[in-house]
Amino acid sequence: MDRGDNRKKPQRLRFSFLKIMTGPDLTPRRLALMEVKSINPGPRVWLTGCGHGDEVGGIAVIQELFKRLKKEPLKQGIVQAFPLMNPTGFESSSRLIALTKEDLNRSFPGNPMGSLAERIADKIFTAIAQSKPDLVLDLHNDWIRSMPYALIDLPLGPRHRALHEKVKNCARKTGLVMIHEQESPANRQELGKTLTGSLLRYEIPALVLELGEAFVVNEDNVADGVRAIWNLLASLDMTAALPGEFNHRVPDRVKGRPLAYSHQPVSSSSGIVRFLARPGDLVKKGQRFARVYNVFGKLQETLSAAGDALVLGHSDSSAALPGAPVMAFGNLKEDRP
Question: What percent of the chain has pLDDT over 90?
């Protein structure tokens, strides 16, 4: 007698919502929540996207990753995701929460009785932290002409050395260029209010993946984002390895090596920028990377690299102003613990 197929499915896929507020017309505003859970226990990884409403690429990366996981089930563990953390910002193509003009990614760990951004941040942070994840990947987008990279928060101090090393190792496993955040007292204070900065203070491993241009979905960047996350899941034995290469090749000289973020030197004059280097280029100390001309075409300034560096991206506009960043670099002289 045929009793049917009693074998358990290898994983469970679930889509749901987390309520964040009720509008004046009584319509609920919600955050989409995605989850794929293997029947075999294992690591828990969280993915978050579109904390800045104009950085839409992370949504597509999470969508494509879950599509792949549907075809190639997890070997063990669980992957959860908030693909769209800032829905009002997304709807208005705004970096900020459109209703209150707040930066969600400077509002963590949040406050259930605070501003709208702080309340949304509290919902997100609480859901993630209470699940006790092994790793959180926050997906962001950068300048239009930029290459993907893994961004590591500043070390919190000697007590968190082991945590910092774990995060660096996770960044290395993605296969992307590894970049340490820009270090300054003001920047350190601001970074403490980001999702990853707040999670690290709660001793939860977390890092940012900067996945190319904002505003629109760039399919090459999406493919590289999926590959980077899949590489990391494979290193945790949650998936099988994914063959192939990144669309944005990582120069051998910087593979697995943390570089220091910098946007120096900046422009000292006004004019029109003409770029001499592209994202992914390695530049040497003193090498010219941009020129600034006035409206009549007279050269105003030539910008040269402060040291050996990898070009991460260049500004979205060719309008130069005194003090304005022109390019972002990963400096090769990085030597941090």
Answer: 83
Alpha carbons within 13 A on the beta-carbon side of 333:
8
Q: At 306, which CATH number? A: 2.40.50.100
Longest C-alpha distance within the chain, in Å?
Answer: 89
What does the mean pLDDT of the chain come to? 92
Q: Which of 190, 220, 250 is the last residue of a domain?
A: 250
* Domain enclosing residue 307, as ranges: 261-331
Residue 2 has pLDDT above 60, yes or no: no
Q: Distances from the Cα of 289 to the Cαs of 61, 253, 316, in angstroms?
A: 31, 19, 15
- Tens of pLDDT, residue by residue over 199-226, are 999 999 999 999 999 999 999 999 999 9
How is residue 140 written in tokens? 């962001």
Rounded mean pLDDT, 266-277: 96
- Mean predicted confidence (pLDDT) in 315-331: 95
Question: To which residue do tokens 């926050």 refer?
Answer: 138
Task: With cut-offs at 50, 70 and 90, classify the pLDDT of residue 79.
Answer: very high
**Side chain identity at residue 291, one-letter code:** R
